Protein backbone atom coordinates (compact mmCIF):
# COMPACT_ATOMS: atom_id res chain seq x y z
CA UNK A 1 0.00 0.00 0.00
CA UNK A 2 1.29 3.43 -0.94
CA UNK A 3 1.83 5.84 2.00
CA UNK A 4 -0.08 8.60 0.19
CA UNK A 5 -2.61 7.05 -2.17
CA UNK A 6 -3.15 10.43 -3.91
CA UNK A 7 0.53 10.64 -4.91
CA UNK A 8 0.81 6.97 -5.95
CA UNK A 9 1.65 6.44 -9.63
CA UNK A 10 -1.02 5.27 -12.05
CA UNK A 11 -0.92 1.67 -13.24
CA UNK A 12 -1.35 1.01 -16.95
CA UNK A 13 -3.15 -2.11 -18.19
CA UNK A 14 -2.40 -4.26 -21.23
CA UNK A 15 -4.85 -7.02 -22.11
CA UNK A 16 -6.36 -8.34 -18.83
CA UNK A 17 -6.34 -12.12 -18.62
CA UNK A 18 -3.90 -12.36 -21.54
CA UNK A 19 -0.77 -11.24 -19.66
CA UNK A 20 1.00 -14.52 -20.49
CA UNK A 21 0.51 -13.80 -24.20
CA UNK A 22 1.71 -10.16 -24.04
CA UNK A 23 4.99 -11.04 -25.79
CA UNK A 24 3.05 -12.60 -28.67
CA UNK A 25 0.55 -9.71 -28.78
CA UNK A 26 3.50 -7.30 -28.95
CA UNK A 27 4.61 -8.72 -32.35
CA UNK A 28 1.65 -7.39 -34.45
CA UNK A 29 1.66 -4.16 -32.40
CA UNK A 30 5.35 -3.57 -33.05
CA UNK A 31 4.89 -4.41 -36.76
CA UNK A 32 2.04 -1.87 -37.06
CA UNK A 33 4.00 0.80 -35.15
CA UNK A 34 7.05 0.33 -37.41
CA UNK A 35 4.79 0.43 -40.53
CA UNK A 36 3.20 3.68 -39.31
CA UNK A 37 6.62 5.26 -38.65
CA UNK A 38 8.02 4.12 -42.02
CA UNK A 39 4.89 4.98 -44.03
CA UNK A 40 4.35 8.47 -42.63
CA UNK A 41 8.09 9.17 -42.43
CA UNK A 42 8.44 8.27 -46.14
CA UNK A 43 5.53 10.58 -47.06
CA UNK A 44 7.13 13.48 -45.18
CA UNK A 45 10.52 12.81 -46.79
CA UNK A 46 9.06 12.66 -50.32
CA UNK A 47 7.02 15.87 -49.88
CA UNK A 48 10.08 17.69 -48.52
CA UNK A 49 12.46 16.30 -51.15
CA UNK A 50 10.41 16.59 -54.36
CA UNK A 51 9.66 20.14 -55.55
CA UNK A 52 6.78 18.91 -57.73
CA UNK A 53 4.99 18.01 -54.46
CA UNK A 54 5.34 21.55 -53.07
CA UNK A 55 1.62 22.26 -53.51
CA UNK A 56 -1.19 22.98 -51.00
CA UNK A 57 -2.66 19.46 -51.32
CA UNK A 58 0.68 17.88 -50.38
CA UNK A 59 1.39 20.40 -47.62
CA UNK A 60 -1.89 19.33 -45.98
CA UNK A 61 -0.93 15.69 -46.54
CA UNK A 62 2.40 16.41 -44.78
CA UNK A 63 0.42 17.86 -41.83
CA UNK A 64 -1.68 14.68 -41.72
CA UNK A 65 1.43 12.45 -41.83
CA UNK A 66 3.11 14.58 -39.12
CA UNK A 67 0.03 14.32 -36.88
CA UNK A 68 -0.10 10.54 -37.38
CA UNK A 69 3.60 10.26 -36.51
CA UNK A 70 3.10 12.27 -33.32
CA UNK A 71 0.10 10.13 -32.26
CA UNK A 72 2.22 7.01 -32.76
CA UNK A 73 5.25 8.39 -30.90
CA UNK A 74 2.95 9.48 -28.03
CA UNK A 75 1.40 6.04 -27.42
CA UNK A 76 4.16 3.67 -28.59
CA UNK A 77 6.56 3.91 -25.58
CA UNK A 78 3.96 3.03 -22.92
CA UNK A 79 2.14 0.39 -25.02
CA UNK A 80 5.35 -1.44 -25.90
CA UNK A 81 6.66 -0.95 -22.32
CA UNK A 82 3.60 -2.79 -20.95
CA UNK A 83 3.66 -5.55 -23.60
CA UNK A 84 7.42 -6.15 -23.57
CA UNK A 85 8.52 -5.49 -19.99
CA UNK A 86 5.25 -5.29 -18.03
CA UNK A 87 6.29 -1.72 -17.10
CA UNK A 88 2.96 -0.48 -15.76
CA UNK A 89 3.77 2.45 -13.45
CA UNK A 90 3.36 5.98 -14.76
CA UNK A 91 3.76 9.23 -12.85
CA UNK A 92 0.86 11.70 -12.70
CA UNK A 93 2.64 14.40 -14.72
CA UNK A 94 3.69 12.02 -17.52
CA UNK A 95 0.18 10.53 -17.61
CA UNK A 96 -1.60 13.91 -17.88
CA UNK A 97 0.87 15.05 -20.55
CA UNK A 98 0.28 11.89 -22.59
CA UNK A 99 -3.52 12.31 -22.29
CA UNK A 100 -3.16 15.95 -23.39
CA UNK A 101 -1.20 15.03 -26.53
CA UNK A 102 -3.40 12.05 -27.43
CA UNK A 103 -6.65 14.07 -27.32
CA UNK A 104 -5.13 17.24 -28.83
CA UNK A 105 -3.72 15.32 -31.79
CA UNK A 106 -7.11 13.67 -32.46
CA UNK A 107 -8.65 17.15 -32.81
CA UNK A 108 -5.69 18.28 -34.94
CA UNK A 109 -6.22 15.26 -37.25
CA UNK A 110 -9.92 16.12 -37.63
CA UNK A 111 -8.94 19.73 -38.43
CA UNK A 112 -6.37 18.65 -41.03
CA UNK A 113 -8.99 16.46 -42.76
CA UNK A 114 -11.31 19.49 -42.80
CA UNK A 115 -8.53 21.66 -44.31
CA UNK A 116 -7.96 18.97 -46.96
CA UNK A 117 -11.68 19.05 -47.81
CA UNK A 118 -11.40 22.84 -48.27
CA UNK A 119 -8.38 22.26 -50.53
CA UNK A 120 -10.33 19.81 -52.74
CA UNK A 121 -13.34 22.17 -52.78
CA UNK A 122 -11.20 25.10 -54.06
CA UNK A 123 -9.37 22.86 -56.58
CA UNK A 124 -12.64 21.67 -58.17
CA UNK A 125 -14.89 24.75 -57.77
CA UNK A 126 -12.34 27.37 -58.86
CA UNK A 127 -9.39 25.53 -60.47
CA UNK A 128 -8.03 28.66 -62.20
CA UNK A 129 -7.84 30.57 -58.91
CA UNK A 130 -6.56 27.60 -56.87
CA UNK A 131 -2.96 28.83 -56.46
CA UNK A 132 -3.97 32.44 -55.84
CA UNK A 133 -6.46 31.40 -53.09
CA UNK A 134 -4.33 28.72 -51.41
CA UNK A 135 -1.02 30.58 -51.24
CA UNK A 136 1.81 29.22 -49.09
CA UNK A 137 1.16 31.81 -46.37
CA UNK A 138 -2.56 30.94 -46.30
CA UNK A 139 -1.76 27.21 -46.03
CA UNK A 140 0.59 28.01 -43.12
CA UNK A 141 -2.12 30.08 -41.41
CA UNK A 142 -4.67 27.26 -41.82
CA UNK A 143 -2.12 24.77 -40.44
CA UNK A 144 -1.35 27.03 -37.48
CA UNK A 145 -5.07 27.53 -36.81
CA UNK A 146 -5.67 23.76 -36.84
CA UNK A 147 -2.76 23.20 -34.40
CA UNK A 148 -3.87 25.99 -32.05
CA UNK A 149 -7.47 24.76 -32.00
CA UNK A 150 -6.29 21.25 -31.11
CA UNK A 151 -3.74 22.18 -28.46
CA UNK A 152 -5.59 25.09 -26.79
CA UNK A 153 -9.00 23.39 -26.59
CA UNK A 154 -7.56 20.57 -24.43
CA UNK A 155 -5.98 22.83 -21.80
CA UNK A 156 -9.22 23.41 -19.74
CA UNK A 157 -9.99 19.72 -19.00
CA UNK A 158 -6.35 18.61 -18.54
CA UNK A 159 -5.17 21.33 -16.10
CA UNK A 160 -7.66 20.36 -13.30
CA UNK A 161 -6.26 16.79 -13.39
CA UNK A 162 -3.06 18.16 -11.79
CA UNK A 163 -4.82 19.34 -8.61
CA UNK A 164 -7.47 16.59 -8.25
CA UNK A 165 -6.85 14.18 -5.33
CA UNK A 166 -6.73 10.51 -6.41
CA UNK A 167 -7.87 8.31 -3.54
CA UNK A 168 -9.55 5.54 -5.55
CA UNK A 169 -7.92 2.71 -7.48
CA UNK A 170 -4.98 3.91 -9.57
CA UNK A 171 -5.47 1.26 -12.26
CA UNK A 172 -6.16 2.66 -15.75
CA UNK A 173 -7.92 0.56 -18.37
CA UNK A 174 -5.38 0.99 -21.22
CA UNK A 175 -1.63 0.94 -21.82
CA UNK A 176 -1.80 4.73 -22.24
CA UNK A 177 -3.53 7.60 -20.44
CA UNK A 178 -6.89 8.94 -21.55
CA UNK A 179 -8.67 11.90 -19.96
CA UNK A 180 -11.94 10.00 -19.36
CA UNK A 181 -10.01 7.17 -17.71
CA UNK A 182 -8.01 9.38 -15.31
CA UNK A 183 -10.96 11.65 -14.51
CA UNK A 184 -12.99 8.73 -13.09
CA UNK A 185 -10.26 8.00 -10.52
CA UNK A 186 -10.44 11.50 -8.98
CA UNK A 187 -12.09 12.07 -5.59
CA UNK A 188 -13.43 15.50 -6.54
CA UNK A 189 -16.25 17.23 -8.38
CA UNK A 190 -15.60 16.27 -12.00
CA UNK A 191 -18.77 17.83 -13.50
CA UNK A 192 -16.77 20.24 -15.70
CA UNK A 193 -14.49 17.41 -16.89
CA UNK A 194 -17.57 15.36 -17.82
CA UNK A 195 -19.46 18.14 -19.64
CA UNK A 196 -16.62 19.99 -21.42
CA UNK A 197 -15.41 17.02 -23.56
CA UNK A 198 -18.98 16.37 -24.81
CA UNK A 199 -19.28 20.02 -25.96
CA UNK A 200 -15.77 19.84 -27.45
CA UNK A 201 -16.58 16.68 -29.44
CA UNK A 202 -19.71 18.34 -30.87
CA UNK A 203 -17.81 21.54 -31.80
CA UNK A 204 -14.85 19.70 -33.36
CA UNK A 205 -15.43 16.13 -34.65
CA UNK A 206 -19.16 16.50 -35.30
CA UNK A 207 -18.94 20.00 -36.82
CA UNK A 208 -15.87 19.08 -38.92
CA UNK A 209 -17.65 15.99 -40.27
CA UNK A 210 -20.73 18.08 -41.18
CA UNK A 211 -18.64 20.73 -42.98
CA UNK A 212 -16.70 18.00 -44.86
CA UNK A 213 -20.00 16.40 -45.91
CA UNK A 214 -21.39 19.77 -47.04
CA UNK A 215 -18.20 20.56 -49.01
CA UNK A 216 -18.50 17.23 -50.84
CA UNK A 217 -22.14 17.91 -51.69
CA UNK A 218 -20.97 21.18 -53.33
CA UNK A 219 -18.05 19.37 -55.02
CA UNK A 220 -20.46 16.75 -56.41
CA UNK A 221 -22.79 19.50 -57.65
CA UNK A 222 -19.86 21.15 -59.48
CA UNK A 223 -18.61 17.85 -60.94
CA UNK A 224 -22.09 16.98 -62.24
CA UNK A 225 -22.04 20.29 -64.15
CA UNK A 226 -18.91 19.24 -66.09
CA UNK A 227 -19.93 18.19 -69.61
CA UNK A 228 -17.23 15.59 -70.31
CA UNK A 229 -17.53 12.24 -68.52
CA UNK A 230 -13.75 11.84 -68.61
CA UNK A 231 -13.24 15.24 -66.92
CA UNK A 232 -15.87 14.31 -64.29
CA UNK A 233 -14.03 11.07 -63.47
CA UNK A 234 -10.69 12.92 -63.34
CA UNK A 235 -12.07 15.56 -60.93
CA UNK A 236 -13.64 12.96 -58.63
CA UNK A 237 -10.48 10.83 -58.72
CA UNK A 238 -8.52 13.64 -57.03
CA UNK A 239 -10.89 13.33 -54.04
CA UNK A 240 -10.83 9.54 -53.60
CA UNK A 241 -7.74 9.48 -51.32
CA UNK A 242 -9.14 12.19 -49.05
CA UNK A 243 -12.62 10.60 -48.88
CA UNK A 244 -10.98 7.26 -47.94
CA UNK A 245 -8.94 8.89 -45.13
CA UNK A 246 -12.05 10.72 -43.86
CA UNK A 247 -14.03 7.46 -43.78
CA UNK A 248 -11.20 5.58 -42.01
CA UNK A 249 -10.92 8.32 -39.34
CA UNK A 250 -14.60 8.99 -38.67
CA UNK A 251 -15.71 5.35 -38.83
CA UNK A 252 -13.16 4.51 -36.09
CA UNK A 253 -14.34 7.57 -34.07
CA UNK A 254 -18.01 6.48 -34.41
CA UNK A 255 -17.08 2.85 -33.66
CA UNK A 256 -15.24 3.81 -30.47
CA UNK A 257 -18.09 6.14 -29.38
CA UNK A 258 -20.70 3.42 -29.93
CA UNK A 259 -18.66 0.84 -28.00
CA UNK A 260 -18.26 3.28 -25.06
CA UNK A 261 -21.92 4.37 -25.07
CA UNK A 262 -23.80 1.19 -25.93
CA UNK A 263 -21.33 -1.64 -25.42
CA UNK A 264 -21.45 -1.64 -21.61
CA UNK A 265 -21.92 -5.43 -21.57
CA UNK A 266 -19.43 -6.17 -24.34
CA UNK A 267 -16.28 -8.03 -23.20
CA UNK A 268 -13.58 -5.68 -21.91
CA UNK A 269 -11.13 -6.93 -24.51
CA UNK A 270 -13.41 -5.47 -27.26
CA UNK A 271 -13.33 -2.01 -25.60
CA UNK A 272 -9.54 -2.17 -25.32
CA UNK A 273 -9.04 -3.47 -28.88
CA UNK A 274 -11.34 -0.75 -30.29
CA UNK A 275 -9.23 1.93 -28.55
CA UNK A 276 -6.08 0.56 -30.21
CA UNK A 277 -7.85 0.42 -33.59
CA UNK A 278 -8.80 4.10 -33.13
CA UNK A 279 -5.18 5.15 -32.47
CA UNK A 280 -3.43 2.81 -34.92
CA UNK A 281 -5.73 2.20 -37.89
CA UNK A 282 -5.88 5.75 -39.42
CA UNK A 283 -2.08 6.38 -39.11
CA UNK A 284 -1.48 2.92 -40.61
CA UNK A 285 -3.97 3.34 -43.48
CA UNK A 286 -3.39 6.97 -44.54
CA UNK A 287 0.07 6.45 -46.15
CA UNK A 288 -1.20 3.27 -47.87
CA UNK A 289 -4.26 5.09 -49.29
CA UNK A 290 -2.18 7.99 -50.64
CA UNK A 291 0.54 5.68 -51.99
CA UNK A 292 -2.01 3.63 -53.94
CA UNK A 293 -4.24 6.47 -55.15
CA UNK A 294 -1.78 9.34 -55.83
CA UNK A 295 0.31 8.77 -58.96
CA UNK A 296 2.98 11.37 -58.06
CA UNK A 297 3.62 9.76 -54.66
CA UNK A 298 3.52 6.29 -56.22
CA UNK A 299 6.14 7.37 -58.78
CA UNK A 300 8.35 8.90 -56.07
CA UNK A 301 8.18 5.76 -53.90
CA UNK A 302 9.21 3.58 -56.90
CA UNK A 303 12.11 6.00 -57.64
CA UNK A 304 13.17 5.96 -53.97
CA UNK A 305 13.27 2.15 -53.81
CA UNK A 306 14.96 1.75 -57.19
CA UNK A 307 17.68 4.25 -56.08
CA UNK A 308 18.25 2.23 -52.90
CA UNK A 309 18.53 -0.95 -54.95
CA UNK A 310 21.13 0.64 -57.21
CA UNK A 311 23.21 1.80 -54.22
From TrEMBL:
It comes from the Eukaryota. The chain crosses the membrane at residues 30-47, 59-85, 97-118, 139-163, 198-219, 240-263, 269-290. One of its GO terms (biological process) is cellular response to lipid. Putative odorant or sperm cell receptor. Gene3D superfamilies: Rhodopsin 7-helix transmembrane proteins. Residues 39-290 form the G-protein coupled receptors family 1 profile domain. One of its GO terms (cellular component) is plasma membrane. Belongs to the G-protein coupled receptor 1 family. GO terms for molecular function: G protein-coupled receptor activity; olfactory receptor activity. It is a multi-pass membrane protein. The keyword Cell membrane applies. Keywords: Cell membrane, G-protein coupled receptor, Membrane, Olfaction, Receptor, Sensory transduction, Transducer, Transmembrane, Transmembrane helix. It comes from Panthera pardus. The keyword Cell membrane applies. Its main location: membrane. This is Olfactory receptor. Pfam families: 7tm_4 (PF13853). It is found in: Cell membrane; Membrane.
